[in-house]
Amino acid sequence: MRLALATIAAVANGALAAYLQRVGRRQRSPALVASGAHLWGDVVTTAGVLVGLGAAWLTGRWALDPLIALLVAANILRLGWHVVRDSVGGLMDESLAASEVERITDIVRHEMGGALQFHDLRTRRGGPRPFVELHLVVPGGMRVDAAHAICDRIEAAVQGELPGADVVVHVEPESELRTPAER
């Protein structure tokens, strides 16, 4: 009876863990992903106990139980490492993924018509929100409203690609042009 209840609880926890991790990844919430990982660790532990006991009981080799327990412990350590790594990344305002930075770079190049160059592109993620900052070099004689229109185009395009992004474009005169090595 107790093993049956443990199995039912493990199945329920597994379903909840999968849901929390799916929603956590979609919402970019380290707390939800960590909660799902914690529940998943409970599911694996319960499954390990059931498999270890069952294997030992069926074969009569009681050494199987602690061996399976070691595998379960190794898996819990692996899950813990991933939770800690992802949480620290979120706390440290980790840069956006290389693929996202590449998409942002392509967008800026496409939308910067009238500007001379951009440099000092910096990205980070604070919880679920991406932050993008860059410097845009415009001709010295460009009117402020024209430079502002370019910035608005870039901001809107980046936000279209990364909904909820906080985008800051710092306009600089052409005296701030950088060589390729300086960018």
Could you describe the 3D structure shown?
- By secondary structure, the chain is an alpha+beta fold.
- Helix content is 63%, strand content 15%.
- The chain contains five helices and three strands.
- The chain has helices at residues 2-27, 30-59, 64-91, 98-111, 144-161, and strands at 117-126, 129-138, 166-173.
- Rg, alpha carbons: 26 Å
Distance N to C terminus = 67 Å
Helix and strand pattern: HHHHEEHE
Number of beta-strand segments? 3
- Quick check: average pLDDT? 88
Biggest sheet record? 3 strands, mixed
Question: Which descriptors apply to this entry?
Answer:
three-stranded mixed beta sheet, 183 residues, 2 domains, Alpha-Beta Plaits
Topology (SSEs and partners):
Blueprint: H1 2-27, H2 30-59, H3 64-91, H4 98-111, E1 117-126, E2 129-138, H5 144-161, E3 166-173
Parallel strand pairs: 2-3
Antiparallel strand pairs: 1-2
Quick description:
With 183 residues, the chain is of the alpha+beta class. It has five helices and three strands.
